[in-house]
Every structure is written in structure tokens, then in C-alpha cells.
């Protein structure tokens, strides 16, 4: 008789335990994991972005050199222009790298609307929603930025082809530069937008974690470890 | 636990066996409760670690910018490009349409610096200007020296240009940023005044060649003579006005400038260059 009672008690407890663990993680966990999986999938983006910056800076300096040394004769700057073209190719690769990582990060994030809708606390739901929206907008902005960046590189290529050509005309160089500057400005605007959404996402997800009572330590994106593996 | 069980074997076998089962079940219960509490905490709050150490989160990265606007070369591969900018102040006026007809005939795009009131009087001229590729620059609302420069700050000046900018934008959908200060930027516009203009998002052009057309009423030839005597630089920004004598002199002015090897250009925000008396790079 007594063993029956015990058995019933165990069964009841087991069902509680199973209820808490077995039937899928709570929305907070799911959202946290999605946010951090996506964020840590971006760790290698930092390096690609740094490469882009270095190459943009290099192009800036090379261009001034080309104009200066090619003033009287552009045969003086053929090698310089070839080097600059190589740097354009590297830039193309770097921006593609960024795209690969951000695409991957986006798919790691998944669709969170359902998980967010399950949050009971209204304030927490709002925080999660805002963070998720900022992330999605950031990704969409990147898609536009990636396309514009490609156009930018094409315009750069056009200018260097013109500067290299033996039959170059100042008029077509001028037109090429004007068109390049226009696309460059659009890219800069998109970069600003992207960066705004980045700040928003970083801040909003941090607010969300705080609201959910999670104790967190931030990294600058140089940690390769998934947040889950960091549990003590 | 199992060892302790073994020690008790032999003495009051049945009872101890019962005890053993009971203890084992209790132990399992505690373990289960422990797991349950841990799992409940985890699933409700995220991943709260038993030892209290923090979760690591990663911040996502931003883009840096190292590129700049590319400058347009005046010389390259032994070539020098001579460029003339025809700029017309104080319009639009009743002469604007005839002037634009003339410019169209010569396939020339010009840069206008217009006054707010005149834009309200001749809105169709402003629209045509933008449609035909001229630049609709700004020249304040009132052209009033005291109002613009004698109030002790840049407030009135900026406000007038913003208002004029709004008029062009309403009429054409294009928001011009290039302005020309009435009476030029020197000496009345000082250092901090210029900073305010730049901070308001404007660029400011003066000119490199003054045709003095405004004072040669009825003497279009004098305007041409003035230009002939002063056209020297590879890039010339030529000050003209939207007036009758200027319209009359325009065909001969165009012909002369072209004969000197110049090409005509219109202001292009994507190919902006500094052209103010102060050589202020912010503008
Ligand atoms: Zn004026």
C-alpha cells in the first residue's frame, strides 16, 4: 500500500519535471538563444568590415596619387591603377564575406514572432519585439547596402578604366566621378542607417535581457563560443 | 549509497531491504526535484547558472567609413579642362523663359540663385528650370542687407534660406543645398556665421568673375567687354543676373566663352568644389 503511495508521488513529481523541461523551452529562452546565435554567427564580420575600411582608405590615397602622378602623362600611373583595381577586387570579396555571415546570422535568428507573442509580460514582449524589429530592419538595410556597394565598386572601376585609357577624356572622367560620388553618398547613408539599427539592436536586446532577469556579460564580438556553452 | 546498502545486508533482511528501497526512492526524488528546480529556473528565466556566473552575449558590429567624395581633376594626362559656370542671380523674372529658350538652343545648363518672392511670382519658371536640368540654387527671401547681416547673428539668414529651400522643394520635389549670399559672402559673413551655414546643411558659392551686368542697363556690349577682360581661370564661376540686358548679351557671351575653349557646366552637388571668398572648405 505504502509503495503505491510512493509510486503516485514519484509519478506526480516526474510529470511536473517533464512539464517544466520536456515540452519545449520557454519563449524567453528561445528568444535569448536566437538573439545570441545570430549575434555570435557574426563574429567574423568584424574582420571583414575592418578589411573594407582599410581598402577604402587605401583607395582614397591611391586615387590622389594617380591624379597627381598622371597629371602630364597617364603612362606614369598604369601600375598604380592596376594595384588599385586589385584592391577593388579585394573589396568585392570582403563585402561578399560580410554578406555570407550576415545571411547565416539571419537564418540563425529565424522567425521569432510566435515566440514573442507567447511572452506573458507585456513590457518584456515590447522589448523583445523592438529588438527583433531592429535586427530585421538592420538585415534588410544590409541587403540594400550590399547591392549599392556593388554599384559603387562598378563606378570606381569605370573611373580607373577611364584614367588608364590612352584616349581618356576629362569630360568622361568628370561624369564618371560625379556618378561615383552619388552612389558613394547613398552607400554612406545606408551605412549610417545600418549602424543605427546595430546600436538599437545591441541596446534593445540588452534591455530585454535585463527585463527577463538574465545576468549577462558583453563581448565585442571576438568570442567564438555560443552563449549556451557558457553556462556555469 | 549502494555500499551502505551492502553493509546492512544480512541483519533483519526484509526490513532493511524495504528501507533501502525507500531511501533509494527518496534519493531519486531529491535528484528529480533538484533537476526540476534547475530546469524550471532555466526555462522560465533563460539560462540562469547554478554558480551565478554571467551569460556571455555578443554585440553585433557596425560599418566604418574611410572613403570620401572623389575630387574631379582639372588636369590629367596632359589635358586641361576649361569649364565655365553661368550663374544667374535674383530670378526668376519675366525674362527667365526666354533665357531658358536660349540656353536650350545652345544645350547649356545654368545655375540659378533665386529669391523667394520671385519664385512665388514665377513658379512655372522654377519648375521648368529643374525639368530642363538647370540647378535651382537659393539667394534668400528678401535680399535685404540689414535683415540678413545686421541682426547680430546668422539666424535670419539661415531662416530665409531654409524658407527659400522649402519653396523650391514644394514646387519641384528637389531640395537644393547650394546658396549664394546676397552681396557676396565677404566681408559681411564671418567665421562662426559660416559655420552656422555649413551646419544647416548648405554649401555656398560666390563667384570668380563678376560681369557687372546689373549696372549696364541698356548696354549689353559692356557686359561682354567686362567678361572678355576678366575670363582667365580654367574654372570660372560667372556672376550674371536674370535681367533684360543680360538676356540680350547672352548669345555673344556664350559664343565668346566657347571660342576660348571652355565647356559649360551646371552645378553638380556630386562634384562640389569650394568657391567662396573665404576659401572656407566647410562650404
Ligand atoms: Zn542678388
UniProtKB/TrEMBL annotation, chain A:
<dbReference type="Pfam" id="PF10368">
    <property type="entry name" value="YkyA"/>
</dbReference>
<feature type="coiled-coil region">
    <location>
        <begin position="85"/>
        <end position="122"/>
    </location>
</feature>
<feature type="signal peptide">
    <location>
        <begin position="1"/>
        <end position="25"/>
    </location>
</feature>
<dbReference type="InterPro" id="IPR019454">
    <property type="entry name" value="Lipoprot_YkyA-like"/>
</dbReference>
<feature type="coiled-coil region">
    <location>
        <begin position="180"/>
        <end position="207"/>
    </location>
</feature>
<keyword id="KW-0175">Coiled coil</keyword>
<protein>
    <submittedName>
        <fullName>YkyA family protein</fullName>
    </submittedName>
</protein>
<keyword id="KW-0732">Signal</keyword>
<dbReference type="InterPro" id="IPR036785">
    <property type="entry name" value="YkyA-like_sf"/>
</dbReference>
TrEMBL record, chain B:
<keyword id="KW-1133">Transmembrane helix</keyword>
<protein>
    <submittedName>
        <fullName>Polysaccharide deacetylase</fullName>
    </submittedName>
</protein>
<dbReference type="InterPro" id="IPR011330">
    <property type="entry name" value="Glyco_hydro/deAcase_b/a-brl"/>
</dbReference>
<dbReference type="InterPro" id="IPR002509">
    <property type="entry name" value="NODB_dom"/>
</dbReference>
<feature type="domain" description="NodB homology">
    <location>
        <begin position="82"/>
        <end position="265"/>
    </location>
</feature>
<dbReference type="InterPro" id="IPR050248">
    <property type="entry name" value="Polysacc_deacetylase_ArnD"/>
</dbReference>
<dbReference type="Pfam" id="PF01522">
    <property type="entry name" value="Polysacc_deac_1"/>
</dbReference>
<keyword id="KW-0812">Transmembrane</keyword>
<feature type="transmembrane region" description="Helical">
    <location>
        <begin position="20"/>
        <end position="41"/>
    </location>
</feature>
<keyword id="KW-0472">Membrane</keyword>
Amino acid at each position: 500500500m505504502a509503495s503505491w503511495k510512493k509510486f503516485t508521488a514519484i509519478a506526480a513529481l516526474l510529470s511536473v519535471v517533464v512539464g517544466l523541461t520536456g515540452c519545449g523551452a520557454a519563449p524567453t529562452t528561445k528568444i535569448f538563444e536566437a538573439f545570441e546565435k545570430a549575434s555570435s554567427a557574426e563574429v567574423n564580420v568584424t574582420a571583414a568590415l575592418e578589411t573594407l575600411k582599410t581598402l577604402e582608405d587605401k583607395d582614397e590615397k591611391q586615387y590622389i596619387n594617380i591624379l597627381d602622378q598622371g597629371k602630364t602623362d597617364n603612362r606614369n600611373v598604369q601600375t598604380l591603377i592596376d594595384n588599385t583595381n586589385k584592391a577593388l577586387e579585394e573589396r568585392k570579396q570582403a563585402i561578399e564575406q560580410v554578406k555570407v555571415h550576415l545571411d547565416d546570422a539571419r537564418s540563425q535568428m529565424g522567425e521569432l514572432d510566435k515566440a514573442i507573442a507567447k511572452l506573458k509580460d507585456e513590457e518584456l514582449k515590447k522589448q523583445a519585439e523592438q529588438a527583433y524589429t531592429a535586427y530585421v530592419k538592420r538585415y534588410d538595410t544590409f541587403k540594400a547596402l550590399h547591392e549599392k556597394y556593388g554599384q559603387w565598386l562598378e563606378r570606381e572601376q569605370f573611373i580607373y578604366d577611364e584614367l588608364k585609357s590612352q584616349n581618356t577624356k576629362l569630360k568622361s572622367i568628370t561624369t564618371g566621378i560625379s556618378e561615383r560620388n552619388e552612389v558613394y553618398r547613398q552607400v554612406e547613408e545606408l551605412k549610417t542607417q545600418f549602424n543605427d539599427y546595430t546600436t538599437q539592436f545591441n541596446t534593445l536586446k540588452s534591455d530585454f535581457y535585463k527585463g527577463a532577469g538574465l545576468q549577462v556579460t558583453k563581448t565585442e564580438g571576438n568570442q567564438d563560443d555560443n552563449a549556451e556553452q557558457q553556462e556555469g | 549509497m549502494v555500499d551502505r546498502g551492502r553493509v546492512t545486508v544480512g541483519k533483519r533482511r526484509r526490513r532493511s531491504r524495504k528501507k533501502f528501497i525507500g531511501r533509494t526512492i527518496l534519493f531519486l526524488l531529491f535528484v528529480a526535484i533538484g533537476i526540476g528546480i534547475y530546469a524550471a529556473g532555466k526555462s522560465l528565466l533563460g539560462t540562469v547558472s547554478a554558480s551565478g556566473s554571467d551569460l556571455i552575449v555578443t554585440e553585433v558590429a557596425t560599418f566604418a567609413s574611410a572613403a570620401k567624395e572623389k575630387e574631379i581633376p582639372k588636369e590629367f594626362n596632359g589635358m586641361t579642362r576649361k569649364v565655365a559656370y553661368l550663374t544667374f542671380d535674383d530670378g526668376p523674372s519675366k525674362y527667365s523663359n526666354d533665357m531658358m529658350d536660349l540656353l536650350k538652343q545652345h544645350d547649356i545648363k545654368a545655375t540659378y540663385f533665386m529669391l523667394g518672392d520671385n519664385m512665388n511670382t514665377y513658379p512655372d519658371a522654377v519648375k521648368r528650370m529643374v525639368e530642363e536640368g538647370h540647378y535651382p540654387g537659393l539667394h534668400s527671401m528678401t535680399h535685404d542687407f540689414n535683415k540678413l547681416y545686421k541682426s547680430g547673428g546668422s539666424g535670419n539668414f539661415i531662416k530665409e534660406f531654409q524658407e527659400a529651400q522649402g519653396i523650391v522643394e514644394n514646387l519641384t520635389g528637389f531640395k537644393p543645398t547650394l546658396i549664394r549670399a546676397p552681396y557676396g559672402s565677404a566681408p559681411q559673413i564671418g567665421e562662426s556665421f559660416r559655420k552656422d551655414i555649413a551646419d544647416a546643411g548648405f554649401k555656398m558659392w560666390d563667384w570668380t568673375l563678376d560681369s557687372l551686368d546689373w549696372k549696364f542697363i541698356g548696354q549689353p556690349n559692356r557686359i561682354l567687354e567686362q567678361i572678355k577682360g576678366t575670363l582667365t581661370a580654367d574654372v570660372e564661376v560667372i556672376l550674371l543676373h536674370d535681367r533684360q540686358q543680360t538676356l540680350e548679351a547672352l548669345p555673344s557671351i556664350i559664343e565668346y566663352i566657347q571660342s576660348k575653349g571652355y565647356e559649360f557646366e551646371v552645378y553638380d552637388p556630386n562634384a562640389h568644389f569650394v568657391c567662396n571668398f573665404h576659401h572656407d572648405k566647410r562650404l
